[in-house]
Amino acid sequence: MSDFKFFADKPTSTYRKSDTTLVILTFLLWAVGIVTLYFCSSGYGTRAFNNPFHFVQRQLIASLVGFCAMIFLACLDVEKLRKILPIIVIGSVILCLLTFVPGIGVERKGARRWLRIPYFSTFQPSEAIKFAMVLYLANLFDKQEKLPEEEKSVFPAFLGLIIFTLIIFAQQDFSTGVFVLCVGLVMFYATGAKLAWFIPFAGLGLPAAALMILLKPYRVHRLTAFLAQDDYQQSYNYQIINAKKAITHGGFWGQGVGTGLTKITNVPEIQSDYVFAGWSEAMGLVGVAIYFVLLGLFAWRIIKVSLSCGNRFAAIACFGFGVTIVAQSILNIAVVGGALPSTGIPLPFFSSGGSSIIFTLAMCGFIINASGIEKSDVYENVSGEFNI
After folding, report:
1. Long-range pairs, 155-162, Cβ under 8 A, ≥24
2. Are 388 and 194 in contact (CB under 8 A)?
3. Distance between CA atoms of 340 and 182, rounded to whole angstroms?
4. Which of 15, 69, 188, 352 is most buried, by CB atoms within 10 Å?
């Protein structure tokens, strides 16, 4: 049985036992997310769809797809994944471009971020872009390390990152585009990019970001409302003010599972971006602390995997996926707590949304795979630098 392998040509001699703690934490976060989604969305599900399990049922169906992706990526040889990487990258770009095709893409409030799935729901291709972008950069960074010094260049990776970002911007999804760009830049820095390279980039990127905000009145209004949170209480700040009430109402021990924000608060889209407000009201400060402990342990295990993985491509991709999941979590909670302007970034494992949970679990599958790859002499320098 010790020689058993999922794929006949997968070299089991180079693999070790996967990180069991990471697997347990993944299932714990998912399970807590499902429970939270139920008691936050049951009231709205009953009112809008006459079904208290409406959002949970959709999340469970998407989770089934996500767990299949997780198992597949946890078992697949990472070098085989690299061979099909062009298909993943091109496929994710095509999916994003399809959002602009009438009848296929779905437009909401001037944004084209979704694809229509008949008889079920919608699909958000930007989640696929997050997944593809990390693999794309990890692949290039690994290849750069193996090139002679004079042939190393950051521009292919930078060009790909800009293309991914611009495609998301074109969908009128500013916050996700900025998030993808920032995750990519963190990966640049983690793999050895010199700090001097970021200075001219910031000089160009910050004015461009400011211009994009100014060109859209609703972005200006969101920023203005964030800076004056006591104003716009019945418009732009309605969600955040009621989310803060829910968090405060939770107290130390919480109001108990089942409150569902029906007693004193009314937060639109509670099942989506503001689901953490429901968790905070129900579980209180103790529940918030438990969540951060789970997230901290999850982040620690991913860092440990990245540093000990025996394949540089897998190590870099593992780091990128970890940054994606953990940074999204922190950003979402910061928005719910009023520390950042509204972004539309979902809370991984918790927020209702099939696209998000599918690719979150897929990322976890890859990280679990990476945790089982033995370090060898060939890959001793996991974070080797390259010159810009």
Report:
1. 157/188, 158/188, 160/89, 160/133, 160/136, 161/133, 161/137, 161/185
2. yes
3. 16
4. 352
Three-class secondary structure assignment of the chain: CCCCCCCCCCCHHHECCCCHHHHHHHHHHHHHHHHHHHHHHHHHHHHHHCCCCHHHHHHHHHHHHHHHHHHHHHHCCHHHHHHCHHHHHHHHHHHHHHCCCECCEEEECCEEEEEECCCCCEECCHHHHHHHHHHHHHHHHHHHHHCCHHHCCCHHHHHHHHHHHHHHHHCCCHHHHHHHHHHHHHHHHHCCCCHHHHHHHHHHHHHHHHHHHHCCHHHHHHHHHHHCCCCCCCCCCHHHHHHHHHHHHHCCCCCCCCCCCCCCCCCCCCCCCCHHHHHHHHHHHHHHHHHHHHHHHHHHHHHHHHHHCCCHHHHHHHHHHHHHHHHHHHHHHHHHCCCCCCCCCCCCCCCCCHHHHHHHHHHHHHHHHHHCECCCHHHCCCCCCCCC
Angle at which helices 126-146 and 312-336 cross, to 10° = 140
Tokens matching residue 21: 């703690």
The two tokens of residue 77 are: 């040889």
Instruction: Characterise 270 by phi-psi region: left (phi > 0), alpha (psi -120 to 50), beta (else).
Output: alpha
Residue 117 pLDDT class (50, 70, 90 cuts): confident
Tens of pLDDT, residue by residue over 267-307, are 777 888 889 988 998 888 999 999 999 999 999 999 999 99
8 A C-beta contact, residue 362 and residue 369:
no
pLDDT at 257 over 70: no
CA dihedral 179, 182, 186, 187 (to 10 degrees): 70
Q: What angle do CA 258, 347, 98 make, to 5 degrees?
A: 125
Pairing type for strands 105-108 and 111-116 reads: antiparallel
Please say whether the beta carbons of 349 and 33 come within 8 A.
yes
The contacts of residue 157 (CB under 8 Å, 6+ apart) are 136, 137, 140, 141, 144, 188
The answer to whether the CB of 39 falls within 8 A of the CB of 257 is yes
